[in-house]
Every structure is written in structure tokens, then in C-alpha cells.
Amino acid sequence: MRVILAGYNVDLDVLKEYKNQNVLLTPESISAAYARISRSPKSIDVLRENARHEIAKARTSNRNIIFEMGHHSVAEHAVFNFDIIGISRRAIEEFERFRLCSYTEKSQRYVTLKGDYVVPKELEDKALRRDFHSIVRLQNGCYGLLYEKIKAYNYQKFSAQAKTRKGRLLLANLAKEDARYILSLSTQTQVGTTINARNLELMIRRFASHPLIEIQELGMKFFKLVKRIAPSILLFCDANDYDKNTYREIEKHFRKLDSGKSKKHGEDVELVECTRDGDNRVLAALLFKVSGRSYGVCLRTVKKMSNKKKLDLYKKACTHLELYDVVLREFEYANLGYSLIVSGGCFGQLKRHRVASITWSDYDPDLGVTIPESVWTVGEEKRFLQITEETDRLFRKIEKSVPGIGSYILTNAHRRRVLMNVNLRELYHISRLREDPTAQWDIRDKARQMSILAKRALPITTKLLGGKSEYPQIYRKLYGRYPKVKEVPVP
To answer: Which CATH code for domain 2-84+190-245?
Structure first.
């Protein structure tokens, strides 16, 4: 794994002075200057000038404000960009769980993979390492085979599209999208990321406490790259018992309580909770925003309305809602909780909805695998299942020897349980993006089921749920006309 510090923010005036003076390039001066805004009568530009010419004082100020006064938010003004190259898909799931950072990852849907993978350092047994290499090579070989066969089938089925370069690229990408389901979580990827210093400090501390060596190394690389540039805003970076032991101890406690009864899979998508009276609460929040009345009065007013009047109020709130608009913030007052069973391929996209609260358990071979329909179409389902069964056997073998490391060998087809809590506003975003025909089929299916369940629970405020492509028709069904089309300005 390689981690490169690609950039960080600095005071623009420092760049102007940099050519002629021995000026230190660091984001600390911005953090220190902004930290003083609340307590100084000086203009912000003067505070910045003082900080960039007195870096030692700026660093002392940062430490005092962050450590002694507890104002960690000033560290958010320092921002870093990193290239992360050669990290495993297994590790990237841990990295991308931090919701206030930005990530752009190499896509297995659009890039033809060459078989690079990570062997976890915890796997010291030579025999297990040989087995690990053997099964990954088998998986990678199947990936190549599936890609070629599915691509050929797509070219034949959609022969008109295959006549153009753009069409062939689309059909080839669809083949990659499905072939990747046989790839392991040890497959290498790369990601560009932007992280502010406050979140970076949290990330480094969590990574120091993480059981996976690959994650620990990522945290150490971050620390070494940034500490020399901005030592005053990375303070709490050591491993701690809270991050290291809490989930382990909860698991041990559960084992004592577990009756040992067989696990039931349940449905792939279940609505396990929903805000009671959610439609009314959203509508009441809309009235609260504009009426000047207390929320209690607004809620009682809505409850007395007929369903038609409630629908009319909802329609008023969405009349001017165009395709790429976000529904009003008041829609956040209804929450829905889903219990999901998703494949690794689906989870790779689901976890990107970081505004939602997402808790996931480990991948579990007992939940089976998700096999793309195209694999059956080209007659490769037996080979696919044979490889996943061999993978399961090696997984259990590794887990007996090195618990927690077996997941590296599992594939994108393997499944895990996810608990996902979303407010209705975020569900609208998920629906627009993931129910669209251009979305990947696996997550599209899950999003569609989530919307169906939401519409049953909240029949009024979900009327416009749906993918981007079908939105004009959904809108027309409700309003009797198509929505206005926002024109894109010509540069």
C-alpha cells in the first residue's frame, strides 16, 4: 500500500510570499487565525497575516484551543488530500465508514481489473498463504472468463448498440459489473480522499485501535505524512481501550446470552421501524416553518385535516420540485429503519450514503451468495458456485487459525446484514439515484423494495419517490402535468 499526501490548503497570501521568503507552507495558520475570530476585534485578514508570520505562536494557539479549551472544530479548517494506492477492498470498507470525509474510488464497474490483491500480514501460516493465493487466482481466472462471456453475450443480444464505440463500452461495462461478483475482498483498489484535520485525527486514533494490520498501517502512514506539516492539530492519535475493546466485549457478552438456536435469514429488505404518525409530523413541520405557531398546534391542525387536505399540503410543498432538487428539510422529521441483507457488491454503493445511519455485521457465508442473472444466462452458475463453496471452506479454515482475517477471501457475491436508518429526505435522494435504470441492478432492487415499504408506511409524503428517469411520469400522475425542466446554462 502506498499513501501520498497529494495536497493541503494553505493561506493564499502565503503562496504569494513563498517565492521570495522562507515561509512555511502549512494549513495551521488558517486554523489558528480562524480560531481567534470569536475573541478578537481584529479583521480576519489581519489575523491570518499575524498567524502565517508567527507559525510557532499559531501552533501553540492551536494546541491550547483544541486541547485545553476543547474546541476541536478549529481543526476542521485544515484540509488534506491523499492518494491511497494498493489498498484492499476489505480495508476500504473500514476507511470509508467515516461520514464527513470525501472519497472517489476506483470502480470495479468501469475498470477492467488485472488481478492485483492484498495478502493480509496476519496470515503467517505458509500452507494457509498457499491456499489463499490459490483461491484468489481461481477467482481472478473466473472473473476474466465471466467478463469475456458476458460481454460477448451482450454484444450479440444488443447488436445495434454494439455497432458504436459508445455502445460497446456500455455493454463491456455491464459485463465488468457482473463479473466482479466473483472477485475477493482482497482485491486491490485505489482512492482519492479529502479529509479535514479533525476527522483525520479521529481516523488515525480509530485505526491505531483496529484489529487489522492493513488498517493500522494506513493510520500510521497518515500520521507520518501530516504530523511534520501540521503537528499542532493532530493531538489524540494513540490507540485506546474504548475503540479497541468495546465491540469485542459486547460480542463476548452476547455469546454468553446466545441460546444457540439456528439463525433465520429473514427477508432481504425489511422495514423494522418508522416514525409513528410520520406523514402528519412532516406536514406539521412544514406548517411550523411558515405559521409562527407552536409545533404542537401545527400537529393538531394537521391531524384534523382530511387526507385530501393533507395531500394538497404535500403537493404545495413539492409543486416546484424539479428533477435534481432536494426535498425540503422538514422531510427529515420522519425516519425509517431498514434491516437489509446485501451482497458485497451492493454494499460497496450502499455505504456511500453516509448521511444515513448504517451499522453492518461481518460478511457471513451462511447468508449465501448473490449471483448475477447474466452468470446464469451464459451457463457459468455451476463454476461460480463451486468457487464460492471452495472460498467458504477456506474462509472457515482461516477463521479457526486467525479469527477476523477470513473475510479477505470472501467475494463481492457474499452477503452481510445491514441496519440502515434514514430520514425521509435522505430516502428521496437514495430513491432518485439508486432506483434509476442507470443504477447498478443489485442496489436498484434494494432501493425499490425500500421505497415500496416506505410508501405503505407513509402514503402521503412518499408520493414522489422514484428514480430520475421515471420522475416526470411520477410527477405527472400526481399533478396532471409534467414538471418544469431546468435549463442548463451554456458556458
So the answer is: 3.30.1360.170
